[in-house]
Amino acid sequence: MLELKNITVAFGERKVIDNLSFTAKKGEIIGLVAPNGTGKTTLFNVMSNYLRPVQGEVIFDNKHKYESEQSEVYIHKHMSTFPEQKDLFEDLTGLEHLRLFADMWKGSRKHIPVVIEYLNMGHYVKRKVRTYSLGMRQRLCFAMMVAADTSVMIMDEVMNGLDITNVALISKKLSEMKQENKLIFVASHLLENLDLYADRVWYLKNGTFVHEQIYKEDQDSFIKVEMDRQQYHFLKQKYELPEEHLYIANHLLCFPLKGLNMKEQTKWLERFLELSDQQLEVGPLGTMEFYERYYLENE
Ligand SMILES: Nc1ncnc2c1ncn2[C@@H]1O[C@H](COP(=O)(O)OP(=O)(O)OP(=O)(O)O)[C@@H](O)[C@H]1O
């Protein structure tokens, strides 16, 4: 449904995106993760044709590219991008913004009252945007995407400035929109939040994806135990650690349970407890661990 082929973007000499390719299909949420200034927005800008790559192409529904005006109109009819707060019109109401997006993309306003109710915006949606708080503006930006109701949605920093209740509300709505067969991209610094609804998370580094995390039912389990470098080296010298273990950012050992029987698992647990008085956790590797693995180097 959306394919990027060999995309390269450079600003001057610096390649921000370097020969990057991917395919994404309807009914999935894809998380995009990287530290500030890595290229997430740049990649989104290429997807929506706000930025021309120096190399590569964007292909929508197997045939539409940003080469002809006809195809560009087709893509933009099916793809919306998260508005930036600074692009809101201070003297228009929230409701007027929702109508604008509904008219431009969906061509109907019937669903707007449902969107307002779902996102608890009834008490402020008829007021001018200039009177809104940061969180109210952010909720409006999200509501505008819901009002547009396109099959592909590109959401940059959707959770910015939201409190826990609103993060939960929007996470729930994202999951529902996935069930409606939409393809949604979410760039976020709220890592654990992505674990709730993403099907895949891509980690961007040096212009390319260094890792693709795929969520599936039967994910491999790990024992996760906090330990400092000294404890880790002690453990490594004393026992033969399996090759697939990870020691992340000088503080966390992730020990794979795959292939171990109950007795072996208990033995390892005992060794860890002997060494570290920190709490142990057992579960699959999450976004937090991958982030630390790729962006916080071990010394
Ligand atoms: N128009 C531009 N001209 C020159 N450099 C640019 C331009 N746009 C982006 N960059 C640079 O490209 C890099 C990636 O920027 P980008 O906005 O894509 O990062 P990001 O991952 O979205 O960051 P953040 O998490 O802070 O939003 C940065 O170093 C930025 O300075």
Automatic annotation (TrEMBL):
Residues 2-231 form the ABC transporter domain. SMART domains: AAA (SM00382). SUPFAM superfamilies: P-loop containing nucleoside triphosphate hydrolases (SSF52540). Keywords: ATP-binding, Nucleotide-binding. GO terms for molecular function: ATP binding; ATP hydrolysis activity. This is ABC transporter ATP-binding protein.
